[in-house]
Amino acid sequence: MQRTRADFENYRKRVEAEKQSAHQMGQTKSVMKLLPVIDTIERAFC
Q1: How far apart are CA 1 and CA 4, in angstroms?
Q2: Could you point out which of 9, 29, 30, 33 has its C-alpha 20 to 30 Å from the C-alpha of 19?
Q3: Residue numbers of the domain that contains 44
Q4: Coiled-coil ranges per the record (predicted)?
Q5: Is the pTM of this model over 0.85?
């Protein structure tokens, strides 16, 4: 029973880490898509 609990806890931690990684990857991709737009706006107003 103790091993089952430990396995489940490890699974839970792994899923949480994967979720955070996916969230961060999504943020990175969003920012990368916005950079050319921001660059163009900066050039237009500077």
Answers
A1: 5
A2: 33
A3: 1-46
A4: none
A5: no
Percent of the chain at pLDDT exceeding 90: 98
Whole-angstrom Cα distance, residue 41 to residue 34? 11
Q: Is the dihedral of CA 19, 20, 25, 27 positive or negative?
A: positive
* Angle (CA) 19 9 21, round 5°: 15
d(CA 16, CA 33): 26
| CA separation for the pair 29, 20 (Å, rounded) | 14
pLDDT tens track for 9-30: 999 999 999 999 999 999 999 9
